[in-house]
Design brief:
Layout lengths: L5 H13 L6 E5 L4 H12 L8 E4 H9 L2 E2 L2 H15 L8 H20 L4 H15 L10 H27 L1 E2 L1 H10 L1 H7 L4 E7 L4 H12 L3 E5 L1 E2 H4 L8 H9 L2 H4 L5 E2 L6 E8 L1 H19 L8 E5 L5 H7 L7 E4 L2 E2 L4 H18 L6 E3 H8 L5 H4 L2 H9 L4 E3 H7 L5 H6 L7 H16 L7 H26 L6 H14 L1 E2 L9 E5 L10 E4 L19 H7 L4 H17 L3 E7 L12 H8 L5 E7 L13 E2 L3 H13 L3 H9 L1 H9 L14 H16 L9 H23 L7 H26 L4 E14 L8 E13 L2 E8 L9 E2 L12 H17 L4 E7 L7 E3 L1 E2 L11 H19 L5 E2 L5
Amino acid sequence: MINTSFLGKIATVVIQDYSAKLAETTIVLPNKRAKVFLIEALKNETKETILCPEIISIEDFVQDVASIRSIDSIELLFEFYEVYLSVTEKQNQQSFELFANWAKTLLQDFNEIDRYLLDPSHVLSYLKDIEDIKKWGIEVENKTKLLENYIDFWKLLPLYYDALYNHLLNKSIGYQGLIYREAVNNLNHFSNTISNRTFIFAGFNALNAAEEKIVQHLIALDQAKIYWDVDQTFLNDPYHDAGLFVRRFKENWKHYKTNPFEWIVDDFSQSKNIQVIGTPKTIGQAKLAGSIIENIISENPTTALDKVAIVLGEENLLMPVLYSLPSSVGSLNITMGYSGKNNPSQILIAKLFKMHTNALSRKGESYVFYYKDVLDILTHPLVEPYANANKLVRIIKENNYTFITHNRITELNSNPSQLFQMLFQKWENGSIAVLENVSAILLLIKENFSNDNEEEKIAKAFVFAVFKVINKLINYYSQHNHIDNIDTLHAIYKQIIDVAEVSFEGEPLRGLQIMGVLESRVLDFDTVIVTSMNEGKFPAGKSQNSFIPYDVKRELGLPTFKEKDAIYTYHFYHLLQRAKNIYLIYNTENDGLDAGERSRFITQLEVEKQRKHNLTFDIYNPVLPTTAYAPMVVPKSEAVMERLREIATVGFSPSALTSYIRNPIDFYFQKILRIREVEEVEENIALNTLGTIIHETLKALYEPFIGKFISEPDLENCFKLLDGEVLKQFKLVYKEGEIKKGRNLLAFEVAKRNVSNFLRMELELIKNGDAVKIIALEETYGRELNHPNLPFPVLIKGNVDRIELRNGKIRIIDYKTGKVEKANVILKSWNGLTQELKNDKIIQVLAYAFMFEKEAGDIPIEVGIISFKNLKSGFLPFGFKEDKELDITVTNEILRNYLEEIVLLLNEIFDVNIPFEEKIND
């Protein structure tokens, strides 16, 4: 019988021993999932047409015995809150959020107490006594209100338990423990009503006290048989956790004093190939699982993968594994819940909650949204293609709307789609209205998917999972209307979505099987790939989510982490029991979120190695490229050369030349391909925006003086206009951005200070006798550069901040809002001028001198920079200092030398054999 699957053996027994009364036979399995496989095994066992026996899971069976409907954890929380309000005095009642924090743990404890048939008043008063002893030494007068409330809480536990138990019983609903306790109470009545039925319990391992009682009762009445699936290797070893529970049952059950224990098998010690493979990180494990499947297929292309299982120790590996599978896999079946938290449509609803709860929390009459919340919704992949709001997104970005009222959004999007209207409907009419709105949004989104596209089918499954959760909430809220607060709704939604799972549809009997650890119960596979074989993941490790201390649990016979580990151990070894090829994959990283040392199960396999097991250990590392990043190189095609000729005609600006020196690839993107930077909302004023505001303010203040000499009263008047002009320029440049508070208010004050300091410096110089006549402000100049070495004439063109006649000299000024030192504009040698980025300021200001040379005639020219972060240095003139002499007048010789260097640079840009090559800054 070796290596017949457990369900195959059960099918044989059913057909052989029960064929005459299949209709009166019920087979009880640990989970619903195994039912499909058992039906298949029964089909393979018989050639005739038969009536299938009833096959149910243990939970459904116990519900039948108790005649009570099971409710989920959230509905239970709502019911408990109702009970809590009814037994707690008004002044001591907590809000639902505070209540939920401790109630979830308490319900788990109630559940355990009931499943193990303990006396609740004994256990709960025990807890109160422990707390009393802890506070034994505190004098009565020192007991604070907080401490009294704390002790009162423990006193109230038996009251909470009784009130909840009776409340649920009256409604014929219950949590798992209550159903088990009632099933045990109802056992005699149940066994009398079904005297002609036979029950077969198959594939169990850890039974709680209530399950033990039910099964033993039915066996004693000869109404049931139980078949275990335990290997002698674990059963006969008194220390092996995989046999912990079954050893207890074999020794303690009365039935086994006189009857044989069925079935003990010897499958684990048979020959197996076990490969233990370590690889870094979660994604590494997913990739490895994919490549193992690929190898299985390439070694035997016709192989059916239905005997291959990937068991995920951690559910968040599901998506990476699906993406890592080879396309040749064909059909696959996912039988594990995928966490609702990572569901893409859940993320949209979470963002919707965030946008509206933030809007509601902002005090004031108008309903105000924050731009990031709005853009998060409008650019979400489930919304963007269907909301027709791209124009609104552009307006928000271009006009720097940081906070935007509900009315303004409605005005800006004058022709809204139905989806848009629903997303931005105000949440002011209570929780049920909000939930119905969200439900309608999900239905509308569902309409956008087609049924033919595989990816859209998955998206639909995700949307449906959230839709179910929202509808559940509508149900709860319509029954429990005393919790009507959007923040509470948000908190409850977050709690539910944590436990909600996305179910995938698949063919359970065909193709590769992907499952969680619990879903593998009772099933047997030839090839098993197990991921996340790390401590804390597999086994899951200690988690003390209970008010009952460890020693009390030990004394009362409640399961502790030791029993939980034993359950995990059984599942793990059962996976390996009949498998021939086993791959155990673990994460080699010891630090980080998904890390932990190698699982104890691997060490156990190594230490207790069976004679016929072939155990190998490997470490797989991903292939790392020798270079992390290769610089981009773009050759100059005919189209590029055409565009360069076009730029030469329209004009090369000094900034275009310096951008080429900085990084030729930037020049290629900006000038050749004309790619603009993405428009983003500037929440805080960027430096270049601040620079534009200062430039524009100075231009506006000085404009009345073009062609005139500036007098002291002119400048005195500028001080009066200053505040208004800066504000006006802010509005023009920064549009709808917020400048009344925060960092932007500081930037506004900085702009005023900079302009004011500049005017003060100008006034001081005029008082000291400078004669200043403004020639041009923010004017564009251009001049053609003809040179024998250039393939064609090139127009040099640029925008000059200010040109003035000062004390008989032409002075060309470039304003810089950043910091510039005197050394930045002094040149010692022409050689390599265009090779060094530090010369960018010199290249810029001398280009202005070249453009304006003809207009200046014989008047000497000075060019330079005024740096607003270095105003105390005043005007910083360009100077050439070859020897001791510093020459600050731009002579013909200086211009000639400058142009020779620029021609070299232009020739490099125009050379078809020199590609645009990216510079990587070290």
